[in-house]
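Problem 12. The chain below contains 142 residues. Write out its predicted structure in token notation.
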Amino acid sequence: MWGILIALLSGALMSVQGVFNTEVTKQTSLWISSGFVQLSALAVCIVMWFFTGRQSPSAILQVQPKYMLLGGIIGAFITVTVIKSMDSLGPARAAMLIVIAQLIVAYVIELMGLFGVEKQPLEWRKVIGMAVAIVGVIVFKW
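Solution.
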């Protein structure tokens, strides 16, 4: 149950953040806004580190495989692409397409067992569910 609530909160926060970042970008620039997002996230992480586990920062050097450390770089591009999509499509359309893209890519990762994720068998009900979501976007657009 906690996982469902946290996922819903995550989706809600992503939508609000996208709107905020898009508005900040209109008043500054794409890279200033994106950089501020990343810097403010770093500040929150540092503060939270002081109040929680306090694992040594050098633990990051032990992460294997090393390509897993690309998450921050990917995060910067996520920020930029969310801002651009919300600016051109509006928050609702952009969020729907973002969620569908997340769903499709996540399912392909599971199907192929990529990045250390346990490989899962193809389930047609999941494919049908994604198709219904895509039809939903088309209906929403009209």
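Discussion. The chain has a mean pLDDT of 92. Students who got a different answer should revisit the alignment rule from Section 12.3.
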